[in-house]
Amino acid sequence: MKTLILISLFAGITASVHAQESNAEKFAKSYKESCAKQQAQVHAKLKDISADSFSEYCDCTTRRVITNLSSDQIKELNQSGGRPSWLRSAEQSASKACIKEGPAIRT
């Protein structure tokens, strides 16, 4: 009986972890694409630059945003598709950290 309970508990935890990872992956892909497009638009007047030029910066920003958000917040972002007010502070913090991360990242 104890073994059955433990197996059920483990299966539930595994499914929950998988769902969290899936939410984070879905958000990361969408966020990175959006970041690159936005950066290219912001910098278009300064010089002719493609969205690919911001890949390293957007990878860094995406990783940091995901790290700083809870699984519930990531799930909310995936479901709503909107931009809640709390996301702005997470983005600003991530952006500052990624700009300072290395000389190869130029925005």
What is the distance, rounded to the nearest whole angstrom, between the alpha carbons of the first and last residues? 59 Å
Write down how many β-strands occur, each being a DSSP E stretch of 2 or more residues.
Answer: 0
Helix content: over 70%
Uncertain spans, ≥5 residues at pLDDT below 50? 1-19
**Main sheet makeup:** none
Percentage of residues in DSSP E strands: under 5%
* Gyration radius, in Å: 18 Å
Number of helices: 4
Q: What coarse outline follows from CA principal-axis ratios?
A: elongated
SSE order: HHHH
Provide mean pLDDT, rounded.
75
Structural class: mainly alpha
Structure write-up:
The chain has 107 residues and is mainly α. The chain has helices at residues 2-43, 55-68, 71-80, 85-100. Residues 1-19 have low confidence and may be disordered. The chain is elongated.
